[in-house]
Design goal:
With 511 residues, this protein is of the alpha+beta class. The chain is built from 22 helices and ten strands. Bound molecules: manganese (II) ion (MN).
């Protein structure tokens, strides 16, 4: 216990939040439980495995200091990687935490195999949405991925590229969609460096040079703007910084055919104040003293970005006709730009259950809005259907392929959706690693492995009762029809033999 209590202090001090006694006790128990469960396991880096869930939990806690979620993050790899079962986690920590761990485990089974296959990506996205209806599952998964990305160097190179590509295509956009700017930026830059080291280096050099070149002028500008705002009696904080990270600069350079001088928001002044009216007042004062660049004023307070981002942006000329971007926002908006949905939830919290429901609702709304981003009308229709996908389940093959099935679907439906032949030869199934029957109903996120027999299965009419998809039902009917015909035929032949054989001449019988 001594070892853990010191470890606990370090752990807790990494999360800038005051937990109450009950919460602290929960975190101590989860930390202890995770260390025991992972005892003896090592990471590729040579560290104790438990370092991973602990660091992931710190990452999650830093943007979302909720004890339940942090505890679930500490336990997130136990179900997958150790002898300890989900049932034991449930006994020890209760239903809520067990459900979160289970959700993360299921998300972990989804693999991005072939990014060219749009159908696959669509299914993958649906799968993510369906499985992580609780936004906390996605927060844990993102924290998990961020720590894995930070320690990617210890994996073999081909694996690094695979994970980084998946992060760039799947996880970073999700972090962005949830408004968690801090995670999106870091996930993108870490992945970009792994996927294309050369482009990363070149872009970073460009960014560093530009930053250095403009360092003096931006400091002058900061002084000048501060002086003016103080003279007008405004209360504010001001920071300067690079707005663009390496990957977002790279993407923008592609758009402007590599001309960095066309990108105004590489470096920006950020003015942070207390209230929305003060934001607009400050904008007015700045425009009074500096000529704005036409068409560069953006009011994301009146019209927030789809991910909830709020701020005023403007670009102005200084006395030497250099362009500067200035961002004006309240401290709460600034916080939300870093922490997105996690900040919303945490600060809106008055009644826990109430806010849990509303966050869930807003999470679903977010993701639906994401679906609405699609421009192709066919895709749009498809996305509307997804809106009502409460009656759909997403089931995985052992390789991580996602099968989209109606709820109530059985192992039989699944087998036929994978391959006709698999359906005709199945004799059983493993569902989430446990033996199951072909009549078993499947549930959201189940991983199903069909056990095949060399001989064709004996398909009975019962299969039709259990199958929910028309695809499976049609194939079963086809089999039954042929099979029935076969029996009739065989009976006919038998009768033919019975009746005619004895009367056939000898040489016929020899054949
Ligand atoms: Mn993990």
């Amino acid at each position: 216990m001594q070892r853990n209590s010191t470890g606990m202090k370090t752990f807790l001090s990494s999360i800038p939040h005051q937990f109450n006694k009950d919460e602290e006790r929960l975190l101590v128990r989860a930390l202890d439980f995770a260390r025991k469960a992972h005892e003896g396991q090592k990471r590729k880096s040579g560290e104790e495995f438990a370092m991973h869930p602990e660091n992931a939990a710190i990452i999650v806690g830093q943007i979302f200091p909720d004890a339940t979620t942090i505890a679930a993050t500490l336990l997130h790899d136990i179900n997958e990687d150790t002898e300890v079962s989900l049932g034991e986690i449930k006994n020890e920590f209760g239903e809520e935490i067990a459900k979160l761990v289970d959700g993360v485990t299921k998300l972990g089974k989804v693999r991005l195999r072939n990014s060219k296959d749009t159908n696959y990506i669509e299914n993958l996205r649906k799968m993510f949405i369906a499985t992580s209806e609780d936004v906390r599952v996605m927060l844990i998964k993102l924290g998990d991925r961020l720590h894995n990305m930070r320690t990617l160097e210890f994996l073999p190179e081909d694996k690094q590229v695979k994970i980084a590509t998946e992060t760039l295509e799947m996880y970073a956009p999700i972090a962005g969609r949830l408004g968690i700017g801090a995670w999106k930026d870091e996930l993108e830059d870490l992945s970009f460096e792994t996927v294309d080291a050369k482009a990363f280096k070149e872009t970073k050099k460009l960014l560093d040079e530009e930053f250095e070149r403009r360092d003096r002028s931006i400091k002058d500008m900061q002084k000048e703007v501060s002086r003016i705002l103080r003279a007008e009696g405004m209360k504010f904080d001001m920071i300067t910084g690079r707005v663009k990270r390496v990957y977002s600069l790279y993407k923008k350079l592609e758009k402007y055919s590599g001309d960095i001088s066309k990108i105004y928001d590489l470096i920006a002044l950020r003015v942070i104040t207390k209230s929305t009216p003060e934001c607009y007042a400050i904008l007015g004062i700045i425009h009074k003293h500096f000529q704005p660049v036409p068409g560069r004023v953006k009011d994301f307070i009146a019209t927030p970005k789809p991910n909830g981002y709020q701020s005023l942006h403007t670009s102005v000329f200084d006395k030497d006709k250099r362009v500067f971007e200035i961002q004006i926002r309240t401290d709460l908006m600034d916080e939300e730009a870093e922490r997105g949905i996690a900040a919303h939830w945490f600060y809106a919290e008055s009644d826990k259950n109430d806010s849990l429901e509303s966050t869930r609702a807003s999470w679903m709304k977010e993701l639906r809005a994401w679906q609405d981003d699609v421009t192709n009308p066919e895709e749009y229709l498809e996305s509307l259907k997804i809106d009502f996908f409460r009656d759909r389940i997403f089931v995985l093959t052992p390789k991580g392929d996602v099968k989209d099935l109606p709820s109530g679907a059985s192992v039989i439906d699944f087998a036929f959706s994978v391959h006709t032949d698999l359906g005709y030869h199945m004799m059983g199934a493993k569902i989430n690693g446990k033996m199951g029957k072909i009549y078993d109903e499947l549930h959201q996120g189940d991983v199903v492995e069909i056990i095949k027999n060399k001989k064709p299965a004996t398909i009975s009419r019962d299969w039709l009762e259990v199958a929910k998809t028309s695809h499976a039902r049609n194939l079963i009917r086809r089999y039954l029809n042929e099979h029935d015909k076969g029996i009739v035929q065989r009976i006919r032949e038998l009768r033919l033999q019975d009746i005619k054989m004895p009367s056939l001449p000898k040489f016929f019988r020899k054949k």
